[in-house]
């Protein structure tokens, strides 16, 4: 029993239990299935927060465990949103066009329907033809596959080129940010095929579903909670055992791991690609709850925020990444909502809507300098106090190994 996955990762059960209780409580307090104490807009905020927690886990895997400070993972997050958003927009527009042409004296042909859909979607950028990237937009399952394939292939190609060249450290971070900026600037163009600066809108409406936003918001909350739970299990499994030890070894001393005969580039490429896919899935669940996606979501600053969340929560701890993302996301929503009273200093008035980013930056600096373990370090303090009173030297190198004197008690 000591060597089972759950025995080696007790935090998994604790996390899943907390997540399940949270989801049930919010459901019972929602308008659709409960007392209505929690508004639909706040249910959406919580659902989006769960998606941000999932992409934070991906960031913690690639940075906190593997040591790759990627400043481009929010690009993968946005690609997942674009992939599912294309189907949502196509299917919703198809319903509108079909209904409007239902009473026509001469039934329209299939091509005429497609042309009408194209005019509705791309008329805002002066076009009516479907670009090649929309080839699978008519099929939910093909677009769901693109949620995985688009960020996964981009990460695979980029990672293979970068890691085989042995680009590391700050240079790799700059390259990932350059990739994000280039992709963002490309999507701003109308010729990108994704409506340029206008982006994709109306994503909160599920085609063919008669339920209102009250119920849909709870459904997305369930889906986001399920994805977060499965993502946490997958991440915990990846970082446990021999594979996790090698990944942490790459983070701590890449040259030594390579000297021991491990394919460092292969391990880094696997983690980079896997986390890109996780980020894409998180984005596919996030943007239907947000209702809109545009190239601004892919700006490099978003990936920097992601790194800040993980640092504040405590990198190298999966629960720390979740805590950091949830804490910063909810506090940010509160400060930027205009509900926090302004602070009048007499000579100057601080409006928190404008000063929130400054506060976030100061918090990041303070955590880095004085609390490198982040908020997750508080959990470590509690667990250390609850741990048995053990003494003596460790018999093994791993944390929690049997200690001298313990076996005789």
In short:
With 409 residues, the protein is mostly helical. Helices cover 66% and strands 2% of the residues.
Secondary structure elements and their pairing?
Blueprint: H1 5-8, H2 10-29, H3 40-65, H4 73-100, H5 110-122, H6 140-164, H7 169-187, E1 200-201, H8 213-239, H9 241-252, H10 254-259, H11 264-290, E2 292-293, H12 300-313, H13 318-336, E3 343-344, E4 349-350, H14 352-370, H15 376-386
Antiparallel strand pairs: 1-2, 3-4
Ends apart, CA distance between termini: 20 Å
- Which descriptor suits the 3D outline? globular
Strand order of the largest sheet: 1-2
Helical segment tally?
Answer: 15
How many beta-strand elements? 4
Q: How much of the polypeptide forms β-strand, as a percent range? A: under 5%
Q: Residue-averaged pLDDT, rounded?
A: 87
The rounded Rg comes to 24 Å
What's the helical proportion of residues?
55-70%
The H-and-E topology, N to C, reads as HHHHHHHEHHHHEHHEEHH
Largest sheet: 2 strands, antiparallel
Low-pLDDT ranges: 405-409
The assigned structural class equals mainly alpha
